[in-house]
Amino acid sequence: MNLTSITLENYRNYEKLALTFSPNLNIFLGENAQGKTNLLESIYVLAMARSHRTANEKELIRWHEPYAKIKGEVSKKNGTQLLEMVISNKGKKTKLNDLEQSKLSHYIGAVNVILFSPEDLSLVKGAPQNRRKFLDMEIGQISPLYLHHLSSYQTVLKQRNHYLKKMPLKQKKDQTYLDILSEQLSEYGSHVLFHRLSFLRKLERWANEIHQRISYRKEILTISYKCSADIEQSASLEKIQESLLKSLKENEQRDLMRQTTSVGPHRDDLIFNVNDLNIQTYGSQGQQRTTALSIKLAEIELINEEIGEYPILLLDDVLSELDDERQVHLLEFIESKLQTFLTTTNIFHLKEKLTIEPEVFWINDGKVERKRD
């Protein structure tokens, strides 16, 4: 799939902007704080209905303006699709082919994007919530049903935690109500876990192959799911639900004391091993970055496997964080395979590594100009 054009109105530092793109490599070139990442971000927001940089959507609206609008045309194997997102103080509205979408789950997934930024290099080393967010965002792109179950799980989790907080230990608890909440949580949570485990099996297969290529067959990468509940990772959906409910029951008194739910998908994590060594704890920075790169490239292949076409790749100043060898692996992987958008302050270090001619956009203070040699 390719983003053939985009139109911005009142988006961050762009008052009005209309661009068309190459189906191969597009480079946003310019000094810092001129709008390169804003432009890249707008593509992500168009696809994912949220920003990767801020949770405050009002920041996306140009100063003193009532709304921001992003429109894009996407070419896919089954035809062209028009996407539109309007962000205002009243919230956000999305359209597909000029039809307003009542639910975001109906909109997300119309176009698939993979974002790789310097923050993603800390996917391996960073906090567990980063890895859970990674799972939720990437699975949600290819499975609207996952987003439905995740949203339902989060709603019931909030209700259960609220009940645990308002119910003092000395006060007689409503066991029936707590049982209902636990049963609902195990039902939705089992679907979330089943999706995650299935996704990880596929991701590990691709990531290990790519990791071995990058390490010249010297390293084997494995990814395991660290579950807070006592769950067998190859279990059926029904068995996962039974095990999750059992774990919730077993931890009920502890949850009442701590006033929070201690087991479930919201507490889980991922473990990355290279040659059977936990690299989150013992790996070198090079191994951690190679693993993060392998995972990102694996996502690309996994989405292609799932939907039958490659996603759009967004590289936000990530090349400056990779050494020459990893840069070469990344550029060799993407060239002529998928549409890529890349931000950088300097193009000269890329010229000798590229075999195709990129489309270069010079960005200065919210103004964009096609750069010709």
Automatic annotation (TrEMBL):
InterPro entries in UniProt: DNA-binding_RecF (IPR001238), DNA-binding_RecF_CS (IPR018078), P-loop_NTPase (IPR027417), RecF/RecN/SMC_N (IPR003395), RecF_2 (IPR042174)
Domain RecF/RecN/SMC N-terminal: start-end pairs: 3-345
Biological process according to GO: DNA replication; DNA synthesis involved in DNA repair; double-strand break repair; SOS response
SUPFAM superfamilies named in the record: P-loop containing nucleoside triphosphate hydrolases
Keyword RNA-binding: no
Subcellular location, record wording: Cytoplasm
GO molecular function ontology, one term from the record: single-stranded DNA binding
Gene Ontology CC, one term: cytoplasm
CDD domains reported in the protein's UniProt record: ABC_RecF
Keywords: ATP-binding, Cytoplasm, DNA damage, DNA repair, DNA replication, DNA-binding, Nucleotide-binding, SOS response
Record: residues binding ATP: G30, E31, N32, A33, Q34, G35, K36, T37
Family to which this protein belongs: Belongs to the RecF family.
Main function: The RecF protein is involved in DNA metabolism; it is required for DNA replication and normal SOS inducibility. RecF binds preferentially to single-stranded, linear DNA. It also seems to bind ATP.
HAMAP family: RecF
Name assigned to this protein: DNA replication and repair protein RecF
Species whose genome carries this gene: Vagococcus acidifermentans
Gene: recF
